[in-house]
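This follows on from our talk about sequence and fold. I would like you to pick a protein and set down its sequence and fold. Go ahead and set the record down below:
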Amino acid sequence: MAETAAAEGLLAFWHSYRLPLLLALATVIVLLRAYRKVQPKSKIATASSIPSSPRSQSPEKSEKIASNHEKEIEKESNAQVVEKESAKPGPKRVTGKKPAKVAGRRRGSDQEPAVSFIQPIIFFASLTGNTERYAQVLLEELRAAARDRADPENRERALLPPQIHDLSYVDFDDYFITAPKPPSTSPGTRYVYCMLVPTYNIDTVLNTFLGHLDETHNDFRIDTAPLAGLAGYSVFGFGDKEGWPTEEEGFCSQAKELDRWMAKLTGKKRAYPLGFADVKSDPESALKEWSRGLQDILGDIVDHGGLGEGVPGSGDALESDEEDLDDEESDSKANGRKRNKAKSVVDLEDIKFSAETGSSAPIPVDFTTGGKPAAPATEKEMVPKTSPTYAALTKQGYTIVGSHSGVKICRWTKSALRGRGSCYKYSFYGIRSHLCMEATPSLSCSNKCIFCWRHGTNPVGTTWRWKVDDPELIFNGVKEGHYKKIKMMRGVPGVRAERFAEAMRIRHCALSLVGEPIFYPHINRFLDMLHSEHISSFLVCNAQHPDQLETLHRVTQLYVSIDASNRESLRKIDRPLHRDFWERFQRCLDILREKRHVQRTVFRLTLVKGFNVDDEVIGYANLVEKALPCFVEIKGVTYCGTSTSAGAGLTMQNVPFYEEVQQFVTSLNKELERRGLKYGIAAEHAHSCCALIASERFHVNGKWHSRIDYDRFFQLLEKEKADGTPFTPEDYMKETEEWAMWGNGGFDPNDERVYKKGKKKAIQAAAEAQG
């Protein structure tokens, strides 16, 4: 009974007070939740008076900070509680000092891994060979330094013997897009770039190289410091103070520019200061002094594992005008100056006012400066007469016409004057060599082919940025230069009088001397001048300028150099300057296909054994199928025997024998037949190690017609200009001579073949033995 009464009493109590109890419980819950929300904020506000670092701190570091500053935190929290009571409502303000940076710490220097081996790589650029000679001196000095530091017992750290590369023959992407990868056998190897460059006032491969660095730095797809993996770099420049007395006027300006780009691309890893030398004032001593300092730095990198720390500004791309800042006060002042400069940015509200008043405001004129106003920039000459390029090309026998054109007498012209045979163009197309002028309106090229006869001395570039000579000046200049060289042959023993007289009337112009003729902005006007005097035109291009090729007027015969069948081989052999070289190449083939019924189109294949011969027949057949040229010339490379060729990896071992060329021609012809393409082997010239595959469009009545009827060509051309009557390559073809047919050697029986080094006697003896 008692338990029942108690239960009834509790029930009555609940019914009487349930609403106040529920309201009280809800109030407590709300207060607890509000307390939990407020509590973390107060802790954060009192526990950290310094803004958090952008870098995440480790748990150990955070625990140390909490333990070391526990008392300060309590004091600050008490002070902030007082401030909270008196503070007006508003946004919370966090106060504190920015954590001080370690002075002069270089980018990534605190994370540089320990270095076990340092590999110096010497890069140089040279036109006349002087810088190459100095680079070899540096090579020997660094080799000696590596030997002196060699320690057989220490297998963890060492200075390795240096490597050396000519910038004219390296692929920039291999060394200047990312740092070279260390070999798998020595993963701790890192590289130091030692760069020796001259400065010229003309366009050389160095301009292309600097342009490559510029593009790499500004390419949004590439990291801002792609060469940060290097251990360091240093640059040494050669210049001529007679031409540029001061650095401001250009003395060693290209070395300074190179140093600036390398500072940006490596992330401020200048290992040793930029060095200068005047080529006319003991450059050896300046180079030796720089080399000694460089060797000391290389030793430090080996011993300490990196460049270490430097003063503020170490490794910067540009030299600062500020004095050295030694203490925190000056550092803060410098930061203040930077902030003041940043404030000069126009506010959004001021833009309208600036736009309205800026155009009508008077232009400020400085009446106090006594110096002369800067002269407007003028277009540079491609090959100035005072340039090393001019000296190098004239030494090779070129006559420079104007500022960017040239003419040179061919060795086959000399041979034809003496009745000793003409080149393959006579066997294939009927061009007698002593009537042919070899010239170009543009000495600049956009490739650096490994087999180039010009030894890398001609200018290079991807766009025309020079003074442009009038085509009439070039036309008259090349004719005058050619005739002067012909006249110089009149006293040479063996020159035939009748051929000398014939040579004083130019009948053909081979626009293939050097450079890229189609690059000349007025190439069509120049061609019209040739044709107006009934001089046939054989124009050669390297398939890198599709826009110019598309707008080209009619020529007697249009060549395109096809030096490889795939992208990688083309990059290794031609070493093109355009980054989209393969796409340009493909566009040119498409244009050639469109023009095949208007122009006589020719593929010129230069075979370089070890580069573009092995297993590339199918690739070449693909290109022929794509463009369907009228003719395909296959020629073995001619070795020019210079140090520059050796630097490109080209030796006599890369020159194919004629039997190998014949085998390649036969294989290519079979592949074309297998595909149903109508081609056949039309002619050969064994002396030039060359053969011709022709389209069956030129196979009429069972005979090949690869030669050109030049008189007929000019008749058709003049008629086309007069009334617009079109014509095709078949309209001016001519039958190929029997002695030029495949299997007959291709040497004109009217000339005398001259053999050297007793070869003629050996051939006669072999013939007598067979007889």
About this structure: DSSP finds 24 helices and 20 strands in the chain.
